[in-house]
Amino acid sequence: MSVPGTSPWWRSAVIYQVYIRSFSDSDGDGIGDIAGIRSRLPYLKSLGVDAIWINPWYKSPMADHGYDVADYRAIDELFGTVADAEQLITEAHRHGIRVIPDIVPNHTSDQHAWFQTALASGPGSPERERYVFRPGRGPDGTRPPNNWVSEFGGPAWTRLPDGDWYLHLFAPEQPDLNWNHPDVQAEFEAVLRFWFGRGVDGFRIDVAHGLVKDPELPDLLPQPDAAAQEPRQHLDHPHWDRDEVHDIFRAWRKVADEFDGERCFVAEAWADTPERLAAYVRKDALHTAFNFDFLMADWNPENLRTVIDDSLAMLGAVGAPATWVLSNHDVMRHPSRYGRNAAKRWAAGERYEPGGPLDLPLGTRRARAAALLTLALPGGAYIYQGEELGLPEVEDLPKDVLQDPIWERSGHTDTGRDGCRVPIPWSGQHPPFGFSPDNATTAPWLPQPANWNELTVEAQTGDQNSILELYRTALRLRREHPALGDGTMTWLDAPPGVLAFRRDPGFVCVVNLSATPYPLPDHSSVLLGSTSVEDGLLAPDHAVWLDL
User: Fold this and answer.
1) 293 is catalytic
2) Backbone φ, ψ for residue 73 (5° rounding)
3) So what's the pLDDT on residue 231?
4) For the segment 281-327, what is each residue's pLDDT rounded down to a tens digit?
5) What is the reported pLDDT for 2?
6) Which of 45, 163, 174, 522 could cross-link 107 (Cys pair, CB 3.0–4.6 Å)?
7) Is 173 a catalytic residue?
8) pTM listed for this prediction
9) Residue 223: pLDDT above 90?
10) Exactly one of 102, 151, 206, 541 is catalytic; which is it?
11) Are the CB atoms for 499 and 305 separated by under 8 Å?
12) What is the C-alpha separation between 196 and 44, in angstroms, rounded?
């Protein structure tokens, strides 16, 4: 429960995403682990974040790096044990850092006990009703039950030797659960209680928009691009963002409210419109949701302002805070997105297709400015591990090291998401850059670029021109300045290409997205800039925080 008269922590929180296998390797096997996270808690404390979100750590065959869960109450041996997780939670709390693990409710692993029992029980058995099994079409049942496609490429159905087909909106190793089944609902509420009882502060919900399917399983008809329509429209879809999903999350909210300490949920929910996204965060539902519209916006002042206005209006209408995110483990890192001026587009859902050559210095300048914009906006923010180091996408990984299932499922036409998941650099002049112990004999699970020696935490610490120190200062000011965090903002008059807004008391953020220097408005001092301000002019592709 919230303390009367105070704002819940999650309304203003800056949450740091830990992609566990790429964060810090304590035992030298080339894969990050829970002990590695524990060893870096002082760093996270010095950075100034409020919480960490940890990608799946559960027991898993790792067909999709943990998003195929075999046991939701066990930690995979790659990462540690439940006791290790409990120790991490305790130590993080001692550092003033909350812990939010992922939960994956849309599907399990094909090695989950339920699915193995379903396979053994045969067609028409009660055990198969926990998943989405169907007979095939055609006289001999050799055609899939419908035309749905997997997010990882290929059909969304796999046929078993007994003739039944099962649904998997992702990899075949990730069979979709049937959320109309009471066993599924009861099991996940029990899992929530298991981890809440061990001290976690909330959950990030994977594919929150995908749990409920149209029971008729109709064919997917050709649909226009909702995002390209003006005004944007909601398109009825047989397995994404269906209204019935909110009943599930209202029940989850009641579970969270059983526990003290302001437990919270954040939804990974892709929705056609801001109004549809806002439905996930009504007062009796989830607490926050990722703002993918902001993540997907190009470096364009009109687009950014529209996304900011729409997000604040729609989320504010249901009393929810906005959240702002620039990168995560599923998308190209934003310095590499912002460093391209050619046309950019997003393919189905989360997949980004870059256009044109990369100008990394340009992308890095814009990333520094975007950090100040993001951390100045009302609400909460997410930092993906390594963005505070200015890490770019690794776009030249050798084909023989790629592990994302998208690579295989696409027939080696889409390299997938490994480029944003390369282990982050901590120290030293050569790989593994402190990610693994000095005596490690196993290389990191993905190779690090040799030139990342200039981007390590060690190299950037104390360098006031580094992006790491920019983040540290911004997060310190965000904690100290009464205008920042949850609240409201007011746009200020500015010429085309410039975004300027005020937050009370006495704070102004200016972002220059134009091609010419911009004279700053009257102010008493410069709190922080993504670059130095000369003669009162803000250079192109930079941002500044002002004290009035």
Assistant:
1) no
2) -105, 10
3) 52
4) 999 999 999 988 999 999 999 999 999 999 999 999 999 999 999 99
5) 37
6) 174
7) no
8) 0.94
9) no
10) 206
11) yes
12) 22
